[in-house]
Amino acid sequence: MGVDAQTMEIRTWRNLQLILWIGGFALTILAGSCSREEREAQVGGQTTMLPDQIITDFEITETAFGRRDWTMKADSAYLYDRRNLLEAKSIEVTFYDEEGNVRSILRADYGKLNRSSDDMEARGHVVVTSSDGVTLETSSLTWLNEQRKIVSDDSVKITRRHDVLTGWGFRGDPDLGTFTILRQMKATIRPENPSEKDEPTGSSYR
Question: Which of 7, 77, 157, 205 is least crowded, fewest Cβ atoms below 10 Å from its Cβ?
Answer without folding.
Answer: 7
